[in-house]
Predict the structure.
Amino acid sequence: MRRALYPGSFDPITKGHVDIVRRALDVVDELVIAIAVNIRKTPTFSPEDRVQMIRECFPGEARITVATFQGLLVDYAREQKIRTVVRGLRAVSDFEFEFQMASMNRRLTDEVDFIFLMTSEEHFFVSSSLVREVAINGGDVSDFVPEPVERRLRARFAS
Ligand code: PNS
């Protein structure tokens, strides 16, 4: 049974993330979507809201677990006895940051390996921060986020 961790801020989850989840489920049996809770950052959505939104994006998908974690990713992976971490790559610009992060994690432990999956072309430019920016300014984000997220963004930034 191959289990993998898909960590991220998911503030909020986008269609790009959903695409990576689908691709990951083609190569692993179970996926833990792990929301990193950073106490030094003020997120748009609380960890609880983010968990709820992600669950609503994958109704009835028994191979997905949604969780939150604080602290180091490698410590959480060890605690969960998971050795594979999935990350999505959009454009070349993601590579540098991802390579740096994976290299640091490798120095912290050799028990975890990273696999990188390419987002589909239509999601290359989609990021949570750009989605927030569009939503805050009243734009239509339905192409970029799943319906449960769109609904919450509309409610959050209604005025
Ligand atoms: O969605 P993001 O913001 O690109 O995800 C980044 C994330 C949450 C995967 C990364 O910041 C992380 O792993 N945070 C947990 C703390 C940690 O282990 N930091 C060291 C990474 S080198």
